[in-house]
Amino acid sequence: MTVETIGITGTGYYLPERVLTNFDLEKMVDTSDQWILERTGIRQRRLAAPGETASSMAEAASRPALAAAGVDPEQLDLIILGTFTADQPLPAAACLLQARLGNHTAACFDISAACCGFIYALELGEKLMLGGRYRNALIVASEVLSCVTDWQDRNTCVLFGDGAGAVVLSKGAGGHRILDTYIGADGEYASLLKVEAGGSAVPITREVLDRREQYVRMEGNKVFKLAVSSMARSARRVLKQAGGTAGEVTWLLPHQANLRIMKAVAKSLKIPEERVYINVDRYGNMSGATVPVGLAEMDHNGVLKPGDLVLMVAFGGGLTWSASLVRW
Ligand code: UT7
Q: How many angstroms separate the alpha carbon of residue 155 from the centre of ligand 1?
Protein backbone atom coordinates (compact mmCIF):
# COMPACT_ATOMS: atom_id res chain seq x y z
CA MET A 1 0.00 0.00 0.00
CA THR A 2 1.30 3.50 -0.87
CA VAL A 3 1.22 5.93 2.02
CA GLU A 4 -0.17 9.26 0.88
CA THR A 5 1.82 12.24 2.13
CA ILE A 6 1.70 15.94 1.31
CA GLY A 7 4.74 17.44 -0.33
CA ILE A 8 6.04 20.31 -2.42
CA THR A 9 6.01 19.01 -6.00
CA GLY A 10 6.91 22.21 -7.90
CA THR A 11 8.29 25.69 -7.35
CA GLY A 12 8.29 28.87 -9.40
CA TYR A 13 9.11 32.54 -9.13
CA TYR A 14 8.74 35.75 -11.03
CA LEU A 15 10.64 39.01 -10.82
CA PRO A 16 9.67 42.08 -12.84
CA GLU A 17 12.24 43.25 -15.39
CA ARG A 18 12.87 46.78 -14.22
CA VAL A 19 15.89 47.13 -11.94
CA LEU A 20 16.20 50.07 -9.52
CA THR A 21 19.73 50.40 -8.13
CA ASN A 22 20.93 52.23 -5.04
CA PHE A 23 22.50 54.75 -7.41
CA ASP A 24 19.08 55.41 -8.95
CA LEU A 25 17.72 56.00 -5.43
CA GLU A 26 20.52 58.51 -4.72
CA LYS A 27 18.86 60.71 -7.35
CA MET A 28 15.42 60.38 -5.72
CA VAL A 29 15.98 60.84 -1.95
CA ASP A 30 18.79 61.91 0.41
CA THR A 31 20.58 58.56 0.61
CA SER A 32 23.70 56.81 -0.66
CA ASP A 33 24.66 53.44 -2.06
CA GLN A 34 27.09 53.12 0.85
CA TRP A 35 24.40 53.70 3.52
CA ILE A 36 21.94 51.29 1.93
CA LEU A 37 24.55 48.57 1.39
CA GLU A 38 26.06 48.85 4.87
CA ARG A 39 22.73 49.06 6.69
CA THR A 40 20.72 46.53 4.67
CA GLY A 41 22.90 44.56 2.23
CA ILE A 42 20.66 45.67 -0.66
CA ARG A 43 22.24 46.71 -3.97
CA GLN A 44 19.19 46.72 -6.22
CA ARG A 45 15.54 45.69 -6.36
CA ARG A 46 12.96 44.93 -9.07
CA LEU A 47 9.90 47.07 -9.75
CA ALA A 48 6.65 46.03 -11.40
CA ALA A 49 5.80 47.68 -14.71
CA PRO A 50 2.56 49.66 -15.02
CA GLY A 51 -0.23 47.09 -15.36
CA GLU A 52 1.61 44.36 -13.48
CA THR A 53 -0.41 43.32 -10.43
CA ALA A 54 -0.25 40.87 -7.54
CA SER A 55 -2.34 38.38 -9.55
CA SER A 56 -0.42 38.79 -12.82
CA MET A 57 2.92 38.28 -11.07
CA ALA A 58 1.41 35.37 -9.12
CA GLU A 59 0.38 33.76 -12.41
CA ALA A 60 3.91 34.17 -13.79
CA ALA A 61 5.32 32.46 -10.68
CA SER A 62 2.65 29.75 -10.63
CA ARG A 63 2.94 28.52 -14.23
CA PRO A 64 6.48 27.10 -13.82
CA ALA A 65 5.53 25.65 -10.40
CA LEU A 66 2.55 23.84 -11.93
CA ALA A 67 4.64 22.63 -14.88
CA ALA A 68 7.32 21.25 -12.55
CA ALA A 69 4.66 19.51 -10.47
CA GLY A 70 2.96 18.08 -13.55
CA VAL A 71 -0.34 19.51 -12.31
CA ASP A 72 -2.79 21.11 -14.75
CA PRO A 73 -4.45 24.28 -13.44
CA GLU A 74 -7.86 22.51 -13.65
CA GLN A 75 -6.58 19.93 -11.15
CA LEU A 76 -6.11 22.56 -8.42
CA ASP A 77 -8.71 22.42 -5.69
CA LEU A 78 -7.17 25.05 -3.43
CA ILE A 79 -5.44 28.39 -4.14
CA ILE A 80 -4.08 30.47 -1.26
CA LEU A 81 -2.36 33.77 -1.96
CA GLY A 82 -0.41 35.70 0.66
CA THR A 83 -0.39 39.41 -0.15
CA PHE A 84 -1.16 42.84 1.27
CA THR A 85 -0.94 44.46 -2.15
CA ALA A 86 -3.83 42.62 -3.82
CA ASP A 87 -5.00 43.92 -7.20
CA GLN A 88 -8.05 45.49 -5.53
CA PRO A 89 -9.89 45.21 -2.16
CA LEU A 90 -12.60 42.97 -3.64
CA PRO A 91 -12.48 40.22 -4.92
CA ALA A 92 -9.53 38.34 -3.50
CA ALA A 93 -6.45 38.34 -5.73
CA ALA A 94 -6.52 34.53 -5.41
CA CYS A 95 -9.78 34.54 -7.43
CA LEU A 96 -8.19 36.76 -10.07
CA LEU A 97 -5.23 34.36 -10.17
CA GLN A 98 -7.64 31.44 -10.52
CA ALA A 99 -9.32 33.12 -13.51
CA ARG A 100 -5.94 33.82 -15.12
CA LEU A 101 -5.02 30.13 -14.75
CA GLY A 102 -8.34 28.97 -16.17
CA ASN A 103 -9.47 27.04 -13.10
CA HIS A 104 -13.19 27.22 -12.30
CA THR A 105 -13.69 25.21 -9.12
CA ALA A 106 -10.87 25.59 -6.56
CA ALA A 107 -11.44 27.22 -3.18
CA CYS A 108 -9.59 30.54 -3.33
CA PHE A 109 -8.66 33.12 -0.73
CA ASP A 110 -6.02 35.66 0.20
CA ILE A 111 -4.32 35.87 3.53
CA SER A 112 -2.81 38.98 5.06
CA ALA A 113 0.24 38.10 7.12
CA ALA A 114 2.72 40.54 5.53
CA CYS A 115 6.22 39.04 5.28
CA CYS A 116 4.93 35.78 6.77
CA GLY A 117 2.32 35.45 4.01
CA PHE A 118 3.96 32.48 2.35
CA ILE A 119 4.66 30.40 5.45
CA TYR A 120 1.19 31.15 6.86
CA ALA A 121 -0.33 30.09 3.50
CA LEU A 122 1.81 26.94 3.44
CA GLU A 123 0.63 25.96 6.93
CA LEU A 124 -3.02 26.59 6.01
CA GLY A 125 -2.73 24.71 2.73
CA GLU A 126 -1.03 21.70 4.26
CA LYS A 127 -3.43 21.46 7.18
CA LEU A 128 -6.48 21.80 4.91
CA MET A 129 -5.08 19.04 2.72
CA LEU A 130 -4.51 16.83 5.75
CA GLY A 131 -8.24 17.14 6.35
CA GLY A 132 -8.61 14.96 3.27
CA ARG A 133 -10.69 17.12 0.93
CA TYR A 134 -7.97 18.64 -1.25
CA ARG A 135 -5.40 16.95 -3.51
CA ASN A 136 -3.55 19.80 -5.22
CA ALA A 137 -2.98 23.22 -3.73
CA LEU A 138 -1.26 26.29 -5.13
CA ILE A 139 0.46 28.32 -2.43
CA VAL A 140 1.64 31.73 -3.59
CA ALA A 141 2.96 34.99 -2.21
CA SER A 142 2.97 38.00 -4.51
CA GLU A 143 3.70 41.60 -3.58
CA VAL A 144 3.72 44.84 -5.53
CA LEU A 145 5.29 46.83 -2.72
CA SER A 146 6.20 49.64 -5.10
CA CYS A 147 2.55 50.73 -5.08
CA VAL A 148 2.49 51.23 -1.29
CA THR A 149 6.01 52.71 -1.08
CA ASP A 150 6.43 56.40 -0.38
CA TRP A 151 9.16 57.32 -2.83
CA GLN A 152 9.82 60.49 -0.78
CA ASP A 153 10.54 58.56 2.45
CA ARG A 154 14.16 57.45 2.60
CA ASN A 155 13.46 55.38 5.73
CA THR A 156 11.41 52.90 3.71
CA CYS A 157 11.77 53.42 -0.06
CA VAL A 158 15.30 52.01 -0.16
CA LEU A 159 14.15 48.71 1.34
CA PHE A 160 11.41 47.26 -0.83
CA GLY A 161 11.07 45.39 -4.11
CA ASP A 162 8.39 43.56 -6.09
CA GLY A 163 8.18 39.81 -6.79
CA ALA A 164 6.21 36.59 -6.53
CA GLY A 165 6.94 32.99 -5.59
CA ALA A 166 4.80 29.85 -5.69
CA VAL A 167 4.80 26.19 -4.74
CA VAL A 168 2.42 23.37 -5.59
CA LEU A 169 1.45 21.05 -2.74
CA SER A 170 0.28 17.63 -3.86
CA LYS A 171 -1.05 14.61 -2.10
CA GLY A 172 0.70 11.41 -3.11
CA ALA A 173 3.87 9.48 -2.64
CA GLY A 174 6.33 12.09 -4.00
CA GLY A 175 7.21 15.65 -3.19
CA HIS A 176 9.42 17.37 -0.67
CA ARG A 177 7.90 16.85 2.75
CA ILE A 178 6.97 19.63 5.13
CA LEU A 179 8.19 18.23 8.43
CA ASP A 180 6.60 20.88 10.61
CA THR A 181 5.52 24.53 10.66
CA TYR A 182 5.00 27.10 13.38
CA ILE A 183 3.10 30.39 12.99
CA GLY A 184 2.24 33.09 15.51
CA ALA A 185 1.64 36.82 15.99
CA ASP A 186 1.37 39.61 18.55
CA GLY A 187 -0.97 42.44 17.56
CA GLU A 188 0.30 44.60 20.38
CA TYR A 189 3.07 45.68 18.01
CA ALA A 190 0.71 46.45 15.12
CA SER A 191 1.65 50.12 14.90
CA LEU A 192 5.36 49.47 14.26
CA LEU A 193 4.82 48.45 10.64
CA LYS A 194 1.65 49.57 8.91
CA VAL A 195 -0.28 51.10 6.05
CA GLU A 196 -2.57 53.46 7.95
CA ALA A 197 -5.16 54.27 5.28
CA GLY A 198 -7.29 52.43 2.79
CA GLY A 199 -9.29 50.29 5.22
CA SER A 200 -12.32 50.88 7.43
CA ALA A 201 -10.38 52.86 10.04
CA VAL A 202 -9.07 55.49 7.65
CA PRO A 203 -10.89 55.34 4.30
CA ILE A 204 -9.13 57.09 1.45
CA THR A 205 -9.99 60.78 1.13
CA ARG A 206 -8.15 63.64 -0.54
CA GLU A 207 -6.84 64.76 2.89
CA VAL A 208 -5.57 61.25 3.64
CA LEU A 209 -3.70 61.20 0.34
CA ASP A 210 -2.23 64.65 1.06
CA ARG A 211 -0.93 63.27 4.37
CA ARG A 212 0.53 60.30 2.42
CA GLU A 213 -1.09 57.80 4.78
CA GLN A 214 -1.66 55.30 1.97
CA TYR A 215 2.00 54.27 2.20
CA VAL A 216 3.98 51.84 4.37
CA ARG A 217 5.45 53.31 7.55
CA MET A 218 7.87 51.46 9.77
CA GLU A 219 9.74 52.06 13.02
CA GLY A 220 12.74 50.27 11.58
CA ASN A 221 14.90 50.13 14.64
CA LYS A 222 12.24 48.57 16.89
CA VAL A 223 11.21 46.16 14.16
CA PHE A 224 14.86 45.17 13.67
CA LYS A 225 15.28 43.99 17.26
CA LEU A 226 11.97 42.12 17.31
CA ALA A 227 12.80 40.55 13.93
CA VAL A 228 16.00 38.99 15.24
CA SER A 229 14.51 37.66 18.48
CA SER A 230 11.28 36.32 17.02
CA MET A 231 12.88 34.70 13.95
CA ALA A 232 15.42 32.92 16.14
CA ARG A 233 12.64 31.86 18.54
CA SER A 234 10.42 30.61 15.70
CA ALA A 235 13.30 28.65 14.19
CA ARG A 236 14.05 26.97 17.54
CA ARG A 237 10.37 26.22 18.07
CA VAL A 238 9.86 24.48 14.72
CA LEU A 239 13.09 22.50 15.14
CA LYS A 240 11.87 21.34 18.56
CA GLN A 241 8.44 20.44 17.16
CA ALA A 242 10.09 18.35 14.44
CA GLY A 243 12.62 16.80 16.80
CA GLY A 244 15.58 18.32 14.92
CA THR A 245 18.53 20.57 15.75
CA ALA A 246 20.04 23.64 14.10
CA GLY A 247 23.17 21.58 13.43
CA GLU A 248 21.19 19.38 11.04
CA VAL A 249 19.95 22.31 8.94
CA THR A 250 21.46 22.35 5.44
CA TRP A 251 19.98 25.72 4.43
CA LEU A 252 18.57 28.53 6.50
CA LEU A 253 16.24 30.50 4.22
CA PRO A 254 15.27 33.61 6.15
CA HIS A 255 12.91 36.41 5.15
CA GLN A 256 15.13 38.82 3.24
CA ALA A 257 14.55 42.15 4.99
CA ASN A 258 18.09 43.02 5.98
CA LEU A 259 21.42 41.21 5.75
CA ARG A 260 22.31 42.23 9.31
CA ILE A 261 19.09 40.66 10.62
CA MET A 262 19.79 37.41 8.75
CA LYS A 263 23.36 37.24 10.06
CA ALA A 264 22.19 37.89 13.62
CA VAL A 265 19.56 35.13 13.38
CA ALA A 266 22.11 32.68 11.96
CA LYS A 267 24.57 33.58 14.73
CA SER A 268 21.93 33.09 17.40
CA LEU A 269 21.14 29.63 15.95
CA LYS A 270 24.86 28.86 15.45
CA ILE A 271 24.27 28.20 11.76
CA PRO A 272 27.36 29.15 9.70
CA GLU A 273 26.83 32.05 7.28
CA GLU A 274 27.68 29.90 4.24
CA ARG A 275 24.53 27.89 4.98
CA VAL A 276 22.29 30.99 4.88
CA TYR A 277 20.62 31.64 1.52
CA ILE A 278 20.79 35.31 0.59
CA ASN A 279 19.33 37.24 -2.34
CA VAL A 280 18.39 40.49 -0.58
CA ASP A 281 21.29 42.17 -2.44
CA ARG A 282 19.48 41.58 -5.75
CA TYR A 283 15.80 41.88 -4.87
CA GLY A 284 15.43 43.83 -1.60
CA ASN A 285 12.58 43.09 0.78
CA MET A 286 9.64 41.65 -1.19
CA SER A 287 7.61 40.98 1.97
CA GLY A 288 5.89 37.57 1.81
CA ALA A 289 7.43 36.81 -1.58
CA THR A 290 11.03 36.65 -0.36
CA VAL A 291 10.84 33.12 1.08
CA PRO A 292 9.14 31.38 -1.90
CA VAL A 293 11.30 33.31 -4.39
CA GLY A 294 14.36 32.13 -2.46
CA LEU A 295 13.11 28.54 -2.32
CA ALA A 296 12.26 28.46 -6.03
CA GLU A 297 15.56 30.10 -6.97
CA MET A 298 17.47 27.51 -4.93
CA ASP A 299 15.43 24.74 -6.54
CA HIS A 300 15.82 25.97 -10.12
CA ASN A 301 19.54 26.73 -9.74
CA GLY A 302 20.32 23.26 -8.38
CA VAL A 303 21.32 24.55 -4.94
CA LEU A 304 18.97 22.13 -3.19
CA LYS A 305 19.97 18.46 -3.12
CA PRO A 306 17.81 15.48 -2.17
CA GLY A 307 17.80 15.05 1.61
CA ASP A 308 18.70 18.69 2.36
CA LEU A 309 16.96 20.11 5.43
CA VAL A 310 15.63 23.60 4.65
CA LEU A 311 14.60 25.90 7.49
CA MET A 312 12.43 28.78 6.30
CA VAL A 313 11.80 31.55 8.79
CA ALA A 314 10.03 34.88 8.49
CA PHE A 315 8.86 37.90 10.41
CA GLY A 316 6.72 40.88 9.49
CA GLY A 317 3.94 43.38 10.04
CA GLY A 318 1.31 42.33 12.53
CA LEU A 319 3.65 41.54 14.08
CA THR A 320 3.68 38.04 12.64
CA TRP A 321 6.31 35.32 12.81
CA SER A 322 6.65 31.89 11.25
CA ALA A 323 9.01 29.01 10.49
CA SER A 324 8.75 25.85 8.44
CA LEU A 325 11.05 22.88 8.04
CA VAL A 326 11.16 21.02 4.71
CA ARG A 327 13.06 17.84 3.78
CA TRP A 328 14.16 18.24 0.15
O1 UT7 B 1 10.04 42.93 6.35
C2 UT7 B 1 9.42 43.23 7.56
C3 UT7 B 1 10.35 43.40 8.63
N4 UT7 B 1 11.18 44.55 8.40
C5 UT7 B 1 12.36 44.56 8.89
O6 UT7 B 1 12.76 43.60 9.49
C7 UT7 B 1 13.17 45.83 8.78
C8 UT7 B 1 13.84 46.09 10.10
N9 UT7 B 1 14.63 47.31 10.16
C10 UT7 B 1 15.75 47.53 9.46
O11 UT7 B 1 16.13 46.75 8.60
C12 UT7 B 1 16.57 48.73 9.82
O13 UT7 B 1 16.08 49.29 11.02
C14 UT7 B 1 16.59 49.83 8.72
C15 UT7 B 1 17.42 49.37 7.54
C16 UT7 B 1 15.17 50.15 8.29
C17 UT7 B 1 17.25 51.11 9.26
O18 UT7 B 1 18.55 50.81 9.73
P19 UT7 B 1 18.99 51.31 11.19
O20 UT7 B 1 20.37 50.89 11.36
O21 UT7 B 1 17.97 50.78 12.16
O22 UT7 B 1 18.91 52.87 11.03
P23 UT7 B 1 18.03 53.92 11.85
O24 UT7 B 1 16.60 53.80 11.47
O25 UT7 B 1 18.39 53.84 13.29
O26 UT7 B 1 18.60 55.26 11.27
C27 UT7 B 1 19.96 55.65 11.46
C28 UT7 B 1 20.18 56.96 10.72
C29 UT7 B 1 19.13 58.02 11.03
O30 UT7 B 1 19.78 59.26 11.08
P31 UT7 B 1 20.07 59.99 12.51
O32 UT7 B 1 18.72 60.14 13.14
O33 UT7 B 1 20.96 59.02 13.24
O34 UT7 B 1 20.73 61.25 12.12
C35 UT7 B 1 18.25 57.99 9.80
O36 UT7 B 1 17.61 59.22 9.56
O37 UT7 B 1 20.15 56.75 9.32
C38 UT7 B 1 19.23 57.67 8.71
N39 UT7 B 1 18.64 57.06 7.55
C40 UT7 B 1 19.18 57.11 6.32
N41 UT7 B 1 20.30 57.68 5.87
C42 UT7 B 1 20.59 57.52 4.57
C43 UT7 B 1 17.48 56.33 7.48
N44 UT7 B 1 17.28 55.92 6.22
C45 UT7 B 1 18.31 56.39 5.49
C46 UT7 B 1 18.67 56.27 4.14
N47 UT7 B 1 19.80 56.86 3.71
N48 UT7 B 1 17.91 55.60 3.26
A: 6
